Amino acid sequence: MIVDLNELAGQFARALLTVDAVYHTIRHPNEPFYEHTGDRLTPKAGFLFAIRGHTTFAFNGTSYEMSPGTVVHGGKQMELRIAPSADEFEFFLIHYTPNYKQLAAEAELPTDYMQTHFALEPGEHPKLIERLRQLHQASRTPGNLAAIRTKELFHGILHELFAYSRNRLHSESGSSIEQAIAYIQDHFMEPLTVGEMAARYGMEAKPFAYLFTKFVGISPIDYLIHHRMKRAEELLTTSRCTIGEIAVSVGYGDAHYFSRLYKKHTGLSPTEFRSLTR
């Protein structure tokens, strides 16, 4: 699934969370894993951080290839199957419990990430691994101060996980999105669609729109409209073209639709804006 990192971070920022347990495990080659199937589904939501080795985890039938730098999340009461590994597999597992009453109050969430499965690719970072080791130690230390330290470390790990994942996503997708921005600026007067733009860069419309929004801050269509409105503003200020001619020059065949859209985005109709600049 496509993970909206901004929404994901927001949900964890708002949530009341309890860290239940932290495990540091090394599985030997072909050593069987304890699987959660049938009436023994996963008891807690959790994050699994791959540190060394390779294997495959499958949540509710969806497989995730686990290798260093990969993190997978699974929700409570899910089926989990784990493939045998030909080499040692080292990982940290953090079990946590969200406040389910609070989640119920946010029933309008587009995706409740705490109750689903997904993967993130933050890459390998020694700082993150060291924080995981500190969390593991703090979680096993009795006392209230250690409990506070455990919460602090868990939220710090989440921050780094989401930030590293976002930065990696931006670096890998940045070139294509920068090209898409340049294409919009050169072809804004044409009837562009998200599907057409995505196809130019070998992507489907939904992943392209997601990456564009994460990189730029607004959707491709909103960026296109914004650029058209800025170009229309220039023409209204510097040319004697009619409103209809300006509408066509920025990609709108219907002058009335263009006027409504211009007023929606600027607060003034094209005619009102032009009268203020003359």
TrEMBL record:
Residues 178-276 form the HTH araC/xylS-type domain. It comes from the Bacteria. GO terms for molecular function: DNA-binding transcription factor activity; sequence-specific DNA binding. Keywords: DNA-binding, Transcription, Transcription regulation. InterPro entries: Homeodomain-like_sf (IPR009057), HTH-like (IPR037923), HTH_AraC (IPR018060), HTH_AraC-typ_CS (IPR018062), Tscrpt_reg_AraC-type_HTH (IPR020449). This is Helix-turn-helix domain-containing protein. The lineage of its organism: Bacteria, Bacillati, Bacillota, Bacilli, Bacillales.
